[in-house]
Design goal:
The complex is a heterodimer of chains A (372) and B (398). By secondary structure, chain A is an alpha/beta fold. Chain A has 10 helices and 28 strands. Chain A has 2 domains: 263 residues, Spore Coat Polysaccharide Biosynthesis Protein SpsA, Chain A (Alpha-Beta Complex); 84 residues, UDP N-Acetylglucosamine Acyltransferase, domain 1 (3 Solenoid). Chain A has a 7-stranded mixed beta sheet, sandwiched between helices. Chain A has a 5-stranded parallel beta sheet with strand order 14-17-20-23-26, with no helix packed on it. Chain A has a 5-stranded parallel beta sheet with strand order 15-18-21-24-27, with no helix packed on it. In chain A, strand 9 and strand 10 form a beta hairpin. Chain A is globular and about 65 Å long. Chain B is of the alpha/beta class and 398 residues long. Chain B has 8 helices and 32 strands. Classes of the chains: A alpha/beta (372), B alpha/beta (398). Chains A and B meet through helix 10, strand 14, strand 15, strand 16 and strand 19 of A and strand 14, strand 15, strand 16 and strand 19 of B. Strand 16 of chain A pairs antiparallel with strand 14 of chain B, so a sheet runs across the interface.
């Protein structure tokens, strides 16, 4: 059955204020050459979805620059393709706040689609998922909503997690949100759903008419359990869920594990696409000593790099010691700089001889364009 | 939208490239990989893009499959244009006769109708086997300013090497007075780079006349240029100062790759203002393992290295396992070099696997470059001596 993708590009901006000060969460750089939205977009395209709407709200210049016409994802099409859906409001001070309001703002788009199924996704999820299998299960089970969940142990007591309980036939029997008081294993809702389009439209209109600030999981799904058929789909592959700067750091570092890289990037016919920059190959100079690191194109490396993620176009000078760090695009680290547990945003320049250090639980962050 | 183009480029990509031996068994020379991320044809195509030329005819004849697929709709070079763009032009069957391209001039002659569609004032002729970055627009402005019939890009070469090239003699106004193909006693050190701009109306007449001459070899250098000089047409030289290399032989291809290395590489591909574009396979970043040692090398995307790489160019998707050593070599994409294998002074073509403990190019008489063809599976412990052309399709080692 044909499906249309809808991606919410701003919903989690508040979780990583450091990185989303200058961009939406969807365009947060990740894994050396990607932006977070690349994973969701590529998953959709690799699952045969050829029409994707991206709902934006604010700070979406970098996102639009990144996705462009959608050609890198083969989404330049006569029928379908990529649609950027900017906020719609009769009063510009009153942009949407909730997921449901965001969807209501693109009601025209939803109503005009001919696809019977909507794949709705947040953009803070890093995984390589066969959405076609989810859609197939959704259709076979004659479900109205399929909720994708991941069994995980949640310890972050500051983050509200929505979790579900399913019965033996995968029917969702309970859905609840809570901040964990201690580490708990839950069926976490990763905010990726497969929904029948006409049902979605009806639910949005019905729920919003009663509760303008209604929550998608609790009010739309929770209050309709028993009335509509909601099933769970457990994703048992690798999934990074970027909910804070510490989590961002931790998940980036997981890319140094072979299993994680294989699962994300080396699946046949399931490449993760991103904007092509036509960078030169990375050049290792005579002072380079690189170990256990993930390094993108267009870098020039003349120092020691260990356990780090180095993005496109980064320069690392002679005599540098870069450990356990994430260096984002086009940053310049001059000679004899010592970094440990540092995240530099794009275009950061660190002058010779500087020593900067954070720790794994709290990496030291340098904002976009910072000069030290 | 404009219905004509000022300048159309015609890229000669039909050469068999027999001096590249096994590397051109299955691909045309312009489709041979270069410099970790590119194929040779990326250089002239990207130069066109960076010079504002968006209409290019690529003349293919030999093993065009990989090249056709690679060029595709021209999107990586921004040549997916509504009017213009890149077009692959193989020889075709006419109503009365059909011909392979008999020579470089004949290849253009057979595609005059393609050029006519764009009603250009000028035509740029390019080769598909040169590595360089050049602003063709500067050359075109030169051509217009001189009111020339033909402008030839020339490069100063060391006098002792001049007899390997087509040598131009020029007067003070940069007008070409004499042209000699590979002269024994060169009168100048200005070599033709095989890059020509013609005023189209003049070129068209010469191509038609050349086709009607049964004694012609239908070659640009030997016939068209010589005839134009004889007739007193205005031929000017456009001096180029920069890196340029003909990569028609194994040795020159290897040297050109090595020219990308070092603190101040002879050929700078890192300059972001004149990018060389390539079709992108969507590879992830490269992973450098805990046992890796990489020095003075350039490495493409999607590579996994856990061995030692010194003074080498490593293409996309290559795997180099723990204990393997790669030195002074050029490794094309998706090659796997297994544990403790040793590769020295070698070019390994795409998709080949070198078994554990194999020794390639590191034994025997040093100094000659070893080549391993594409899709080979070199068994564990195999020894391939220096200077070998290893190609199982043509009887293994040579």
């Amino acid at each position: 059955m044909k499906a249309v993708g809808i991606i919410l590009s701003n919903i989690h901006d508040k979780n990583i204020p450091e990185l989303t000060k200058v961009r939406s969460i969807a365009s947060v750089p990740y894994g050396g050459r990607y932006r977070l939205i690349d994973f969701t977009l590529s998953n959709m395209v690799n699952s045969g979805i050829t029409k994707v709407g991206v709902i934006t709200k604010s700070n979406y210049q970098s996102l639009m620059d990144h996705v462009g016409s959608g050609k890198e994802w083969d989404l330049v099409r006569k029928n379908g393709g990529l649609f950027i859906l900017p906020p719609f409001s009769d009063n510009s001070d009153n942009l949407y706040e909730t997921r449901l309001q965001a969807l209501n703002g693109v009601m025209n788009f939803l109503e005009r689609c001919e696809e019977e199924i909507v794949v709705l996704s947040d953009s803070n999820i890093v995984c390589n998922m066969d959405l076609d299998a989810v859609i197939q299960k959704h259709v076979d089970a004659k479900a109205d909503i399929t909720c994708i969940y991941k069994k995980m142990t949640v310890c972050d007591t500051s983050y509200t997690v929505t979790s579900i309980k399913v019965d033996a036939d995968d029917n969702v029997v309970d859905i609840a949100s809570a901040k964990p008081s201690e580490c708990t294993e839950v069926n976490a809702v990763v905010n990726l759903w497969v929904i029948n389009r006409t049902m979605l439209i009806a639910l949005i209109k019905d729920t919003l008419s009663r509760e303008p600030k209604a929550d998608f999981n609790l009010d739309v799904i929770g209050k309709n359990l028993g009335k509509i058929k909601v099933i769970g789909y457990e994703f048992d592959g690798y999934l990074a869920w970027i909910t804070s700067l510490a989590k961002y750091y931790e998940c980036n570092m997981e890319l140094l594990e072979k299993d994680v890289r294989d699962e994300l990037f080396n699946k046949k016919y399931k490449a993760i696409y991103t904007k092509v920059k036509d960078s030169a190959p990375t050049s290792y100079r005579s002072g380079a000593k690189v170990k256990n690191s993930f390094i993108a194109d267009g870098c020039v490396i003349d120092g020691i790099v260990e356990n780090s993620i180095i993005s496109r176009g980064v320069t690392i000078g002679r005599g540098c010691v870069i450990k356990n760090s994430i260096i984002l695009q086009d940053s310049i680290i001059m000679d004899n700089v010592n970094l440990n547990c540092v995240i530099t945003d794009k275009d950061v320049v660190i002058s010779s001889g500087k020593v900067l250090s954070g720790c794994e639980e709290m990496p030291f962050f340098l904002g976009k364009g910072t000069r030290v | 939208m404009l219905t004509k183009k000022e300048c159309v480029a015609m890229l000669l990509a039909g050469g068999q490239g027999s001096r590249l031996y096994a590397l051109t068994n299955q691909v045309a020379k312009p489709a041979v990989e270069f410099g970790a991320k590119n194929r040779i044809i990326d250089f002239p195509l990207s130069n066109c893009t960076n010079s504002g030329i968006d209409t290019v005819g690529v003349l293919t004849q030999y093993q065009p499959l990989v090249l056709n697929e690679y060029i595709g709709n021209g999107q990586p070079w921004d040549m997916d244009r509504t009017f213009g763009g890149v077009h692959v032009l193989p020889p075709y069957q006419g109503k009365k006769k059909s011909d392979w391209y008999k020579g470089t001039a004949n290849a253009i002659y057979q595609n005059l109708s393609f050029i006519d569609r764009y009603q250009p004032e000028y035509v740029l002729i390019l080769s598909g086997d040169h590595i360089y970055k050049m602003d063709y627009d500067a050359m075109l402005q030169d051509h217009k300013k001189n009111n020339a019939d033909c402008t030839i890009a020339v490069l100063p070469v060391p006098m002792e090497e001049a007899s390997r090239f087509g040598i131009m003699s020029m007067n003070a106004e940069n007008r070409i007075t004499e042209f000699e193909e590979k002269p024994k006693q060169p009168k100048s050190n200005l070599a033709s780079m095989g890059i020509y701009i013609f005023t189209y109306s003049v070129l068209k007449q010469y191509l038609i006349d050349d086709e009607n001459d049964p004694n012609s070899e239908n070659d640009f250098g030997k016939n068209i240029i010589v005839n134009m000089l004889k007739d007193g047409k205005k031929l000017c030289g456009h001096r180029f100062e920069g890196y340029w290399k003909d990569v028609g032989t194994i040795k020159s291809l290897w040297e050109a790759n090595m020219d990308l290395l070092g603190e101040k590489p002879n050929f700078d591909i890192f300059d972001t203002k004149q990018k060389i574009y390539a079709r992108n396979a969507g590879d992830p970043p490269q992973y450098v393992g805990a046992n890796a040692c990489i020095q003075n090398s350039i490495i493409g995307s999607g590579v996994e290295i856990d061995g030692t790489v010194i003074n080498s160019v490593i293409g996309s998707g290559v795997k180099i396992e723990e204990g393997a050593i790669v030195r002074d070599s050029v490794i094309f994409s998706n090659v796997v070099i297994k544990k403790n294998a040793m590769v020295e002074l070698t070019i390994i073509d795409e998709e080949t696997e070198i078994g554990c403990n194999a020794v390639v190019g590191a034994t025997g008489k040093k100094g000659d470059i070893c080549v391993v063809a594409r899709n080979e599976k070199i068994a564990d412990n195999t020894v391939i001596p220096a200077g070998t052309m290893y190609d199982s399709l043509n009887g293994g080692a040579k």
